[in-house]
Design goal:
mainly beta, Immunoglobulin-like, 4-stranded mixed beta sheet, 3 helices
Length: 542
């Protein structure tokens, strides 16, 4: 009996030991089987679905091992789990669908989180676009195991900027050049919401990012980017103006936070510049010589852990020109400091706070030799408008560090639903703006310069973004943006309402309908000007 009791005690201790996992192959991160804490928590072993996969490159998310450790979902008896790694954050990436052997939808979930399933063989659908455009991967689920799907797709994040370096809500389309497949429209976000930009999950290949409505063979308003499996590509798209502008440049974002301090802090710096010397002789024999100097500096610090996501960035950009016989001229001078912090409460809820400072470093002078200056003077108790001339050729429009623009904001991001057929999220918050002026001037349509005034504004803002997918061929994108100056509900203004409908008639034929409306001045004859556009896009690739 003593030996029998010893044997039973030994068997009970052996049964309580954690089960070691299988190798993760070439997946990013450490081997999960070596992480005793993770295996002990889930009481499961990790089974790969492929032996080879590309290593992580420029992911915003941590490696697979840490993603599994962060996930709080436990595998109950009789179930297995599917795990699709995330490149950025689960709430920013499309939903994952698991289709059983009978072709029925078994369950949906997010990347970076375990999806509980019964044992069996499944088709996993991942990616952006309509259902027919998503990537299909086979996966076998075993009871008590976590099956990790190696990344066979690429990630793409598109940030949209104006030519002055400000983040704007520019619109674009993502088109795969092989077969000219349109994966839909996207929109950039302002500085305070960069952490909410959606991540495209796409099959590897060459993609064309173009202005909405441009033909596939257009020679303007587009850039191209290569998307590779297992990689997250970040792209900057630059428009010549903030509203309804054309695309003037763009490409891969070279700023990567490579230096690490501990596990949470990362830092990165990007700097560059160029000097351009030119000599031109026209048909009249007149020679012109010019020099242009430009510089660019970005420095970023990122903090990322389970509870907080923070980013701080310094951006400096300067352009100078000098023509023979003319003075040195400042073409562009931008100095910005930006910081954003988000508290992760749940996967669908997270308040944020932000602050920005923007100014110019170098004094800027008027190009004209003769400048009209408009002033309002008090003459015997009556304000009189006077025009003065400055013929010195050295009239300073904006001294150094004048004006200074400050911005603050606080709000909350709420994701109502995140399913394949419907995605809906809203952002609500308070925003404050201050423009501090000392000696700077602005011009009017009459080419007159007048002293700028300091501006102080505060308001409540809210927007709603939703995507409705109707089957594999139809999609509807909705956007609603409201603003209440001085947080006064009676002054609530419709800044934008957009409905964008797309119907894929065939692989080469797409029908689209776009409706936009916004509120203008309340005294205008038409308070809600609108825009309708019906398009039929035909593409042919031989």
């Amino acid at each position: 009996m003593r030996y029998l009791a010893s044997a039973l005690l030994f068997l009970s201790l052996a049964a309580s030991l954690p089960v070691r996992g299988a190798q993760l192959g070439d997946l990013p991160g450490e081997d999960v089987s070596s992480s005793g804490g993770e295996v002990e928590k889930s009481q499961s072993k990790v089974t790969p679905t492929a032996t080879q996969a590309r290593r992580a490159e420029n992911w915003l998310a941590p490696g697979v091992n840490e993603q599994l450790s962060r996930d709080r979902i436990l595998i109950p008896l009789g179930k297995g789990a599917l795990f699709v790694p995330t490149y950025s954050e689960p709430r920013r990436e499309p939903e994952v669908s698991a289709i059983d052997a009978r072709g029925k939808l078994a369950r949906t979930g997010q990347t970076g989180e375990r999806i509980l399933l019964d044992s069996g063989s499944y088709t996993v659908r991942i990616g952006s676009g309509t259902g027919g455009q998503q990537i299909s991967v086979r996966a076998v689920i075993e009871e008590g195991h976590t099956t990790v799907v190696p990344p066979q797709w690429g990630g793409l994040i598109v940030e949209t900027l104006s030519a002055l370096g400000e983040y704007i809500e520019g619109e674009y389309e993502v088109i795969r050049m092989e077969g000219w497949i349109n994966y839909g429209k996207g929109r950039g976000l302002r500085e305070e919401r960069l952490q909410d930009i959606k991540t495209w999950l796409l099959p590897p290949g060459m993609y064309r990012i173009s202005k909405p409505g441009e033909g596939f063979n257009s020679l303007r308003n587009y850039i191209t980017v290569q998307v590779n499996s297992g990689e997250l590509k970040q792209v900057e798209l630059v428009y010549d103006k903030a509203v309804a502008g054309d695309i003037v440049s763009g490409g891969s974002k070279a700023l990567n936070a490579r230096a690490r301090v501990g596990r949470n802090w990362r830092f990165g710096v990007r700097a560059g510049g160029n000097v351009n010397l030119a000599r031109q002789t026209d048909d009249a024999g007149i020679r012109k010589e010019s020099m242009q100097v430009s510089s660019d500096l970005r420095a970023r610090a990122l903090f990322d852990n389970v509870k907080y996501l923070g980013s701080s960035e310094i951006f400096l950009q300067d352009n100078f020109s000098k023509e023979k016989g003319r003075r040195f001229n400042v073409l562009s001078d931008i100095a910005q400091v930006r910081t954003n912090w988000t508290r992760r409460l749940t996967p669908w809820l997270g308040p944020y706070m932000r602050a920005t400072v923007e100014t110019n470093i170098f004094p800027r002078k008027a190009i004209q030799d003769t400048v009209k200056i408009a002033t309002m003077e008090d003459s015997s108790g009556t304000m009189v408008r006077r025009i003065q001339l400055d013929t010195s050729g050295d009239f300073v429009i904006a001294p150094g560090f004048d004006p200074i623009k400050l911005g603050q904001g606080a709000g909350v991001n709420i994701e109502f639903i995140s399913k394949y057929y419907l995605e809906a999220a809203t952002q609500m918050g308070l925003a404050a703006r201050q423009t501090l002026v000392k000696e700077s001037y602005g011009s009017n349509p009459q080419s007159e310069y007048s002293r700028n005034q300091s501006i102080y504004e505060i308001g409540a803002e809210s927007n709603l973004n939703a995507t409705l997918r109707l089957g594999d061929q139809m999609a509807l994108d909705l956007r609603l943006e409201l603003f209440a100056p001085n947080a006064n509900p009676s002054r609530l203004r419709l800044d934008d309402f957009t409905a964008d409908f797309r119907f894929l008639l065939s692989r080469n034929l797409e029908l689209g309908y776009l409706y936009q409306v916004s509120e203008t001045q309340r005294k205008a004859r038409n308070r809600y000007p609108s825009f309708h556009n019906v398009s039929l896009r035909l593409s042919f690739n031989y």
